[in-house]
Specification:
The chain is an alpha+beta fold and 207 residues long. It is built from eight helices and four strands; from the N terminus they run E-E-E-H-E-H-H-H-H-H-H-H. Strands 1, 2, 3 and 4 form a four-stranded mixed beta sheet that branches. The N and C termini lie far apart (48 Å).
C-alpha cells in the first residue's frame, strides 16, 4: 500500500510539509505485494499548489487588499506596498527540509533493468486503466489527485504515458482554479503543454 507525505506550496512561497504519513487510496502496483516500498521508495511525496496565501500570510494579504482598495491611485515616486512573500532564509530552510524528505523516502535514483522497468510501467498503466473506469474519477478533485500521484512516482518511470491516459479529461474536468493548481505538477513531468490548447472555464458567470 502506498503511503505519502504532502508538501503544500502557497502563493507567498511558503511551504508546509504534512506532519504525518497518509495512506493512499490508490496504488498502481498491487498493494498486497509490497512493490511500492520495496522498489519505488518508502513513500510518495505529493506536491500540492494552493492558489492562496499560507495561514501566516493570509491576514497581512487581507489587510493589504483592503488598503489598496481604499487608497487613491499611486502617485509618481510613491512606494508600492509589497505582497507577503517568503524571505531568503525561509526559502533556504524549506529547501533543506525538502531535501531531507526526499532522501528519507529512499526512492531509487537509478532505474531497474529494462525487463523489470517494462513490467512496472505495464503494471501501472493497466491499473490506471482500471481506476479510470471508476465513475469517481469524474470528480475534479479525484482526477487532480491522480495526476499528483503519477507525478510522485520515480522519474525513471514512464510517467508521460500515464499522463497521456489522463489527458482526454483535462478540458472536461479542470476549471480555471484546478488548472492553476495542477499546471506546476504537469510541468514537473514535462507535460505542461497539455494545457496549452484547452479553453479555460470558470465557476462564475461572466457578465
Amino acid at each position: 500500500m502506498c503511503v505519502y507525505r504532502e508538501i503544500r506550496k502557497y502563493n507567498c512561497g511558503h511551504e508546509e510539509i504534512s506532519a504525518s504519513f497518509e495512506q493512499s487510496p490508490l496504488c498502481l502496483f498491487y498493494k498486497d505485494k509490497g512493490i511500492c516500498g520495496r522498489e519505488l521508495g518508502l513513500y510518495r511525496i505529493f506536491e500540492i499548489v494552493v492558489n492562496n496565501w499560507c495561514p501566516r500570510c493570509a491576514p497581512k494579504a487581507s489587510t493589504l487588499a483592503m488598503t489598496v482598495n481604499l487608497a487613491p491611485p499611486t502617485r509618481p515616486g510613491e512606494r508600492l506596498m509589497t505582497t507577503p512573500h517568503a524571505l531568503a532564509h525561509e526559502l533556504a530552510s524549506q529547501n533543506i527540509e525538502r531535501d531531507k524528505l526526499n532522501q528519507a523516502s529512499c526512492t531509487p535514483s537509478s532505474r531497474p533493468g529494462e525487463r523489470r522497468l517494462e513490467e512496472l510501467n505495464g503494471m501501472a498503466q493497466r491499473n490506471l486503466d482500471t481506476q479510470m473506469s471508476d465513475q469517481a474519477v469524474n470528480d475534479p478533485t479525484v482526477y487532480s489527485w491522480l495526476i499528483r500521484y503519477v507525478a510522485s512516482l520515480a522519474p525513471w518511470m514512464d510517467r508521460q504515458a500515464l499522463v497521456n491516459k489522463l489527458a482526454p479529461w483535462l478540458a472536461e474536468l479542470l476549471d480555471e482554479e484546478h488548472q492553476i493548481c495542477i499546471r506546476p505538477t504537469l510541468k514537473s513531468m514535462g507535460c505542461e503543454h497539455m494545457l496549452d490548447n484547452i479553453m479555460v472555464w470558470t465557476r462564475d458567470v461572466l457578465v
